[in-house]
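Annotated sample (chain length 454).
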Amino acid sequence: MSAAMASSQTPMNANNKQAPFGEMIPWGDPAWYRGYNSPYYRASHAKLRAQVRAFVDKEIMPFCNQWDEAKKLPVDLLKKCAKAGWLPAVVGAPWPKDFAPEHPDIPAAEWDQFHELILIDELARTGSGSVLWGISGGLSIGLPPVLHFGSTELKRRVAPACLSGEKIICLAITEPLAGSDVANLRCTAKLDETGENYIVNGEKKWITNGVFADYFTVAVRTGGPGMGGISMLLIEKDMPGVICKQMQCMGVWASGTTYITFEDVKVPKKNLIGRENEGFKYIMYNFNHERWSIVAQATRSARVCLEESMRYAMKRRTFGKKLIEHPVIRWKLAEMARQVEATHAALEHITYQMSTMNKMEQMQRLGGDTALLKVQSTKVFEYCAREAAQIFGGASYVRGGQGEKVERCYREVRAYAIPGGSEEVMADLAVREGMKNYTNHLKKLSAGSAGAKM
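Output written by the structure step:
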């Protein structure tokens, strides 16, 4: 066990208990912000929390509506995030120290999954999946396949520029006719007569950051049907035949959701990520992390709806008294709070497992639980967005103003309930994974029993 992992398992005691942090709006922040004891957080977590909150409050929060309406982020925002020291963290623990400077206050060896959770949580406090996805939506899922499976040359060529905010990368898997059904994607990559280049043809849809991206981590079909014929290629924006068109979507406007067409794009064979026809397992390798990130974002977004509703209910007056004094409003707030608190507790539990399991164990044991929690978090987000809109009334129907966050969250619910695996697909996956693990357990018991009789 690493020193960082050991320290992450050390419970807090009376001498290192964290002081309350934030405005103390009821349930407006997670329990450990409110001074409750927690076994998960150390001094470095509290330091990162304060740093990211200060950055968000100054550099992001005041401009979310403006950037959403513009449907893009400022070109220098990612560089600011990198300069602040935390942008590389969005690719997940461990810190990618070979390609990015360490955080100025937290050594790479100490960086764990809870640091990333705090980062996501504080960014999602903006109530803008649009901004959050604009910052990390492409990097967090587009770069890991390169980092984990790319050649040394490919990593050195791509990773430093992306982790410093100089370049943008995205993941291009989903197609017009293949969403959760990844194994049946149709975009093709065929070797040319020289055997040195792939010729790529096909379409990708709903690609986050695509219209802004310099690099595309693309799932392509290099072999036969099914998952065994899929490979991953790094395609570059300036390669002839790459055509990007920003899509006009319900929400997450500034994240650059994109329709991409590849027309006879010549891609050097050296841009192959890993081995040919093994791309499906590379895609699966990062899915738990991607879904966990969606859970963290959706859970805080639900909490934003609760916090904004609580604030509004304490000042808005109807029928001669504040909204908070009406029993039906208190009931709505309580229903939101119990769901948000329970979901966040489950999120911390999964985060702890991720911090204390190796990658293979995570893939074997956490897939079903993470899928189930994704369903839970997006359903809670949807419930809280609706109830917040009811509490705000007409103010939630207007873009901007005091209902800005609630209106935006209401539009963005579907962006969490569908991408990364729809609620229906995730629920089915959870049960199938549970049954698979149970069957394997019975086989082990049977084998052990048979061995004892010999």
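Annotation: Residues 216 and 235 are 5 Å apart (CA to CA).
Annotation: Residues 1-15 have pLDDT under 50 and may be disordered.
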